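Predicting holo structure, adenosine-5'-triphosphate bound.
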Amino acid sequence: MKDRNKFFIKDLNLYYGTFRALINVNLNIVEKKVTAFIGPSGCGKSTLLRCLNRMNDLIEGVKIDGVVALDDTDIYGDIDVIKLRTKVGMVFQRPNPFPMSCYDNIAYGPRCQGIKDKATLDELVEKSLKQAALWDEVKDRLNKSALGLSGGQQQRLCIARAVAMEPEVILMDEPTSALDPIATSKIEELMESLKEDYTIVIVTHSMQQAARISDNTAFFLSGEVVESDITSNIFTKPRDKRTEDYITGRFG
Amino acid sequence: MKDRNKFFIKDLNLYYGTFRALINVNLNIVEKKVTAFIGPSGCGKSTLLRCLNRMNDLIEGVKIDGVVALDDTDIYGDIDVIKLRTKVGMVFQRPNPFPMSCYDNIAYGPRCQGIKDKATLDELVEKSLKQAALWDEVKDRLNKSALGLSGGQQQRLCIARAVAMEPEVILMDEPTSALDPIATSKIEELMESLKEDYTIVIVTHSMQQAARISDNTAFFLSGEVVESDITSNIFTKPRDKRTEDYITGRFG
Amino acid sequence: GCSNNGGSTEENETGTETGNTTVSGEIVAGGSTSTKNIMEATLDEFAALNPDVTAEYNATGSSDGVKNADSGVYQIGTASRNIKEEEKALGLTEKIFAYDGIAVIVNPANKVKDITVEQLAQIYKGEITNWKDLGGEDAQIVVVSREDGSGTRGAFEEIVGFEEELTANATIAEGNGNVQSTVAENENTIGYVSFTYINDTIKALTVEGVEATTDNVLNETYKVSRPFVMVYQDDNLNDAGKAYIEFLMGEEGQAIVEEEGGIPVK
Amino acid sequence: MRKIKDNIVKFIIILSSVISVGILVAILGFVFGKGLGQISKDFFVNEYNSSSYYLSFNAENIKSNISEDKLLDSKYREGMYNIIEKPIYIENIGGAIGIIENTRAKNTDVMITYVENKSPMSKAVDRTGKSIGIKEGFLLNRINGEKVEDKSLEEIVNILEETSGKIELKVVSVGGGVFPNIVTTVYMILLSLGIAAPIGILAAIFLVEYAKPGKLVNLIRFATESLSGIPSIIFGLFGMAFFVVFLKFSLSILSGALTLSIILLPTIIRSTEEALKAVPDSYREASYGVGASKLQTIRKIIVPSAMPGILVAVILSIGRIIGESAALLLTAGTVAKIPDSLFSSGSTLTVQAYYLAKEEGNIEMACAIGIVVILLVIVLNIIAKLITRLFNRANY
Amino acid sequence: MDLMKDNKTDKTRKENFFKYVFMFCAFVAVISVFAITFFVFFRGLKPFMPGTNGYSIVDFLTGLEWRPGQNKFGILYMIVGSIFATAGAIAIGVPVGLLTAVFIAELAPKRLADIIRPAVELLAGIPSVLYGVFGLGIIVSILKGYSPYAQGQSLLASILVLAIMILPTVVSMSETAIRAVPSSYKEGSLALGASKIQTIFKVIIPAARSGILAGVVLGIGRAIGETMAVMLVAGNPIAGIPTSLWDKIRPLTTNIALEMGYASGMHQDLLFSTGVVLFVFIMIINFTLNKIIQKKIS
Ligand SMILES: Nc1ncnc2c1ncn2[C@@H]1O[C@H](COP(=O)(O)OP(=O)(O)OP(=O)(O)O)[C@@H](O)[C@H]1O
Ligand SMILES: Nc1ncnc2c1ncn2[C@@H]1O[C@H](COP(=O)(O)OP(=O)(O)OP(=O)(O)O)[C@@H](O)[C@H]1O
Ligand SMILES: [Mg+2]
Ligand SMILES: [Mg+2]
Ligand SMILES: O=P([O-])([O-])[O-]
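Done. Tokens:
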């Protein structure tokens, strides 16, 4: 099976006011694979990730040029942003469940889409929680506040919340950086199983993590994508000197 | 020259309320060396570091037992905490210059000690900034607000501020984690030069950084010090399986 | 019920026992603070006799009473002084419904008992400034007056005869009550309030030997008195308003005026 | 050296705190000391003014076996009255009357102290035929037009016993309470908040969530900020000229509430803005991230999360309504009666206290009202704390 | 393609409808704000307009006597009195309030702070009339014993009453501001061997400056705008620039409240003019303090 590109990014520049945070980014993101963005702090990983579901729209003074296409549609064209976001889900660095019950957290997105039927919602909640490997842990406390969960559980709940929308892509911005090792490994396992159905893009600070879980890796430096390739190539035979320096721990 | 222990930590336990954040920690910190604390998030690195100058005193509900001795004096005994802190300086994760001029930032500590003489202060400021490799960059803007400096410069200013107290030990809690690679490497160079005069303890998330700059390394896991040794030993022949797993990126 | 909706009130039948024709409607009155007690008592009695009447009185000041009677906010406005020239120009109907004495008050600790109108004028003009000149102790006189525009002040200045020459040194207190409290709190003060506000926290002086009583005002021996006036636009009066005015000016109403410490007009 | 200096400064700090607290204690002591004596049950349930009624009924012979003790043991005794002459039961009217002394006004009155179950008095009608009913505690003023003032208890009893057929009594309900002011205060709170809270909260949502930062928002912010510094007397002037005179709402609780609303708006807008801004962006991001629309995000996530802050703003506003006097005096009037429509005037507790101090020099009563107000404010503060705590618990 | 926009759905309509509801409310708020401003200025400036047989603005602003009956409407002595009273209240209330806030936020044991804080907030809830009554009953009575005049109503009494009244505002705003100072500043200072007091005065208070100033602004607003309390203790004379703490003053607000019920015609308009002067006062103070805050921060 030939790899199909889910996202196609061409000559993308992004400015925060006058500061150019992304510089001529060209990148393809392959369908049903895990793509990792690595690079030192402030290099623009989160910025690019948030371009993919137009989350940057929320920030005042952001200007963008270039093309970001999802399945060949330019998402910066005249599209329905809300629909885009139902297709491209997102999980954030800090677990951010809503201050409501676990059930309501998962049902939030579908309800916003107008799904009211209790049975449908019940089913969706159960399915999503199972996919997020959280069902067994929370099935008895579905109606308790999600804020009472542990950090790792909260993060899986957020993944379940994203999954409940049945998106095509899931974006994850350092999803494990606030978690302990055990929770981290659970989430990594989860990603492994999710990639059968979803295209996953993950930002991570940990090269080990990128090496462990991703199929493709893009290395960022100061707003540029220095190199992108299949993960093993990046870690074993980087083409760029800067990539090599970073991989071998000469900085960062 | 035989290594002398600057800090001697024995059977230290620390509780945040009922949560035991440090468990029977035993550790020696060698004079005029760089000691790195590594370990996954939440394992107690910062907590131990803050024990060394009793910064934890500020937190409500902290209880401590065990011994932390500086040059053979138990710092949790009947000592003058303020004097302790002049001897054991600290640099934080996020640069936290005071909202005043660069000059006043550096002169702050000495002034608090009662030094008023302008010439003495001038000299001290210049010397500290030079030690922190910042003099050339700020000498023309000493009277401008420190908040106008870049992140890396701010962090070096904070180091200069600590140095101005002419302490014996400098504690650094992830001093480069908020900085870009260039600023990071500058600070690493700086540490290299500072260790001739000072005992340095640094918490870091980056194993590469620990490997690059430290002489000794302590590996933490869930509140315990799993292993501490000279850095090359930790990274090449760890005695504990968990250390090895962490070093080789199996978690964290 | 047998209320007389919109019917006319040919006749004032209050005071008789049975078979009353009552009026209905709303009376909004307001104005002078000094007339408040009288107005409230008569309105209450009137409303008791005519249960379908609702009545309220807002004590917002004499000038406000005239102004609001003109603008229609009040159906009936009251003033505790004579209507001024420029107010007369508004073409409102005026009616004096009572007279009032103004008591000159001092602190109960003050030894002075009597004062002349002449002395009052001198004190308020700032020409006499020490109690010893009045036979009291050697202490400064603290002159307390009311706010500009107050009916009580207007009347007092007019009667005592020092119009617009109030000493710059006077303390201005708002309302009869504040004059009273201010005088009660300091033994060197002198002030003036409506008769209706005399109580035991203060002492009313005799003026030229005459005691501050209703009788003495009626027999014209007590000099410091003034009229209570009501003003209204004729076509702004509803049935209830008309009937009320008749009631107030009648025997019943005037009896209440007297009960409340005012001096009836007849 | 440093120690000494630190200690001196510490001493000054503590001294300042002692002064602040001392002032508080002094003020509370003053208010409670002056006012406490005035507070009784009557104070809360009575009208401020006494009101008179002419009520008539037909004499009937109602026997009663009420005991002597019971006759003395009526409700009025808890209030501000002392019995001077023991009440006498009169079969003709099915009730007892006695002579009492008003401890506050220091005068004596004839009071109907007891009304038997089937007494004709409870079916008494006013002159329009409306049934009002004579109640225990009413003062008796006239019998068939004849004043009772100068008569002895026996004479009065005799007159009543001898009258047969229709009897008309003039009775007076006892005043001296602040019930109407309490009711007016409640109306004022409901009305002003009913107007200002929705407008203010929705306006704040617009400013935080919709408006692009720029000149317009800055202008609005500047306007609201300067407005919060304007003395309320100026609002009173505006309310008087605009609502009272121009719109012809007259001196009424409506004019008062509208004026108060304008006073409250800046505070409500500012505090709501702060509460909305304090909602972590992560909630917004998460909501948009699952494809919620802006309105959905506002309604389901942002406003509920900002609720404690908004509620606190509302409660602070209530405090402001309760404490306001200058503006209300000019717009809502001074009538101490329960307003029977939006267009009747009424005085809140604070206005009444102000009025009593200013016009009647009745400091004790003003302080008594002050006590009620202070208690109200304490209750409100506690509610505000509880709300914050409740919501905080929900958050962690 | 299913990502395409569809503007005609119910959902978008609803979104837009509510957006306009929000906007409408914002405009109502703005309009009422401007209506008041416009109205007060309109009425207040009317007497000074050329063409009307009004009053000279110069006489108004520089006059030393307020005798409406004699057509003398000078408010300079009131302006001076207001400024003195406000400045005095700030000079006393701000330091005491600030230090109390420091005590509550930094020094007091948690339990004590939890008692003092609500107690001080309670002070803010007491209707100002009662402050006036308290001032008349206690402060004025005490001052009378020391005054060279035979009475206690004075500038000093006004200052004291106002200082008490601005205390709660200053305390709670300063306390909030002090609490909001990032703990990193405090940690940074303590880690340098500064004592607690040094940290408070050299780092925390300067860093909390803008919040504290905001409290001061509100406090000034309250001091200038306060009517009912000062009216009872100021003396409100009809003329005379105060030259000592014992002189009586007639604050601008009091002037309005005293006579509004009684005034008509030009007299009433000139009371509005007094309101305009107050308005301008507050604006100027807001503006300068904002400027100061901004300058200090940049
Ligand atoms: N809202 C913003 N306004 C202005 N500049 C911003 C904003 N967000 C990010 N930046 C800047 O853009 C650059 C890229 O930021 P970004 O958050 O994408 O980095 P990152 O690679 O995700 O870093 P990290 O690993 O620390 O999350 C940084 O220099 C950052 O300071
Ligand atoms: N003030 C506090 N109160 C209660 N628990 C705390 C507090 N500070 C830290 N902890 C807990 O103590 C444990 C150790 O925290 P610490 O900050 O020392 O970890 P760390 O190793 O520095 O982690 P990181 O790399 O994320 O900085 C964590 O589980 C943390 O949740
Ligand atoms: Mg990032
Ligand atoms: Mg840490
Ligand atoms: O309120 P006055 O009766 O003095 O006008």
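The longest strand of chain C covers residues 93-106.
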